[in-house]
Amino acid sequence: MFDDIKRELRRLERGMTVAISLPADEEGFLDRQCPGKGCRSDFKVYADDWRDLDSDERAYCPVCRHESPSEKWATPAQVKYVEKVALSKLTRMVNQAFDRGAREFNRRPQNGFLTFSLSYKPGSRPLILPKATAELMEQKFACEKCNCRYSSIGAAFFCPACGHNSALSTFDQTIATVEKAVSCIETVRSAITAVSGRDDAENTVRLILEQSLGRLVGAFERFNEALFVTLPAAPLLKMKRGCFQRLQDGSDLWKEAIGRGFVDMLPAADWRSLLLLYQRRHVITHRDGIVDRDYVQKSGDNTYREGQRLVMQADDVNQLARLVKALGAELRKSCS
Length: 336
Known about the structure:
four-stranded antiparallel sheet; 11 helices; 6 strands; 7% strand; alpha+beta
């Protein structure tokens, strides 16, 4: 009497395909996550642009340029969403098969003294909710080469669709986004205090300021790399790995290439401030902000003692944004 159920089970044993559309956000962007084990960066791509990728075989991470097939970029939340949708469809199919079997049985003639009927009430199916995201101060990009639209909370330098390095335009956008984030600090603090309390608000503000330092340093490093290789002399010069992470090394390389380094492009006081802010960013990134002897010696910062934790202020971030913007303008001028 349950032939329908048997047929459904046999069909499931052979495997089945379920078409599932992932929900985009209110602006039409789709959440993505880099599948590279050393990266796992989160970003967004305009859903239509992701669907129309130049190649179904691969997509690129905007942060590290990892390449993987386009179906490998789902976020953990999206994987759970797909599992819920598939389970919901499977449950509905089984429910319908049971219901058909029960109705067929009840239509059969009943002989003898006892009559009974079957009823089947399916249990509640998993509740499926679209992934809702509320990201703070997103940076939006459009690829200079293929016009793919994408966004990121942190640094992003490569187009997800074609892999084009957009570090030069990204540099300006990163500075503008960081300046906007810092200008909204008090609004963010007040809003989070009202909802979650003062501790959560202060932790959020701290993270915004510390991450903003890292974004500026990362964008300036990628900017240097992209601009330097356009120089005719670049192939003749030895560029050490990660040299633009280190201000003095980067300055020396530019001086060798064009006759002027960072130290020649800024007033002495600004150069000292830049060195200090880079040292602070290094401590935040590699020591969770805990001051060590190396920091005190290299930075000359007497406001902290070994074992203390750095406290970043909005003025520090604005100062770094101003300094790297000034250096970027000077480098562009020298390369034009």
